[in-house]
Known about the structure:
71 residues; three-stranded parallel beta sheet; 7 strands
Amino acid sequence: MCPTGSTSCGPDPINDFQHFAILAGGHPGAVVTHNVAVGNQVGIFGNEGDVTIDHNVLLNNKLFGMGAPGW
């Protein structure tokens, strides 16, 4: 969650900071599979490179269940 009064944390994925349960990427062939992400701001974020995201459960994530640059 964003701290009370934060000016850098919020729902805009371009201009604000969010807390991720799983931040994946930056390595060729990264795999995120068979995880459960519950109650985060963002469940899974595939950052850079070739990321395989499959068979995950995302529940009650406040801003996004899953995201990636350009979505």
